User: What shape does this take?
Amino acid sequence: MLDTRQLRYFAAIYEFGSLNRAAEEVRVAASALSHQLGQLEAQLGTQLFRRKSRGMEPTAAGLRLYEHARSILKAIEAAQTDLKTADRRIAGQVAVGMSYSSVKAIGVELLSIVLRDYPDVKLVLSESLSGAALPLLLASDVDMALIYNPPAEAGLRSQPVLEETMVCVGRPEVIGDTDDPITFSDLLELPIILVRQGISARAIMDDVALLKKIEARAILQMNSVQAIGGAVEAGLGCVIGTRLFMQEQLDRGTVRARPIVSPTLSRTLYLCNLASRPPSYATEAICDLIFDLVRRAVEEERWSARLLR
Assistant: This one.
């Protein structure tokens, strides 16, 4: 049976790639660490690292074990913190994953309120493009994440937050010098710059069939907010997104936004966490704060969306 000490030693070797550096981190002699690793490999019946002159390289089995070990060690750490604060004091580290648009809408306000009202909470905020927050959550790099159209996985606990309508954004000479709606069929004739979504292709819109048509016609695919914004402003193409995504450029008047019709395109934002990890007082408090900030942003029309909670 695996124990937490073995997992902690194994994770240190994996993260530092060296027995000596890992030994310094966990304050154990390198020979003792090597012995523990040998016992773990014998217990599992597989080699976890390839010993090389410049360090330790994980095998496929080592990569798989590290995914489990990281999740288990994070859960143990969260449990220890939660039990130490059994007086319901809100304390400990909370890692939150957010899309670029979510950070624009509520990120700074979230940080400000946590610093002011929850001084014992260490908030870690990770920004990503719409589809990249899911891998962070699945890898236990974050405790919760605002994710667009997450997959229906048994391991995820997902709460709907809001629904956004997508628009076509581009320079007037690219999409037309008008604010009138554009049909989906006409949209496909434009030079589309697509946000590259990775593991969560549905993050750009709810309808996967329509997304595949867009992907087939896109002239460029990028995973850089800066590059997308610059390319659209330069007139290289247009982007399908929300007004919030390019709000600054819209305010400057360098680009226009046209609603998309026949059909209307939309996407749904969820607050997700891993079902296997029980909430702590701190994560519950941050979840409630995020819901409240989203609601206020929508009600104050800083976030153009329809609340679902």
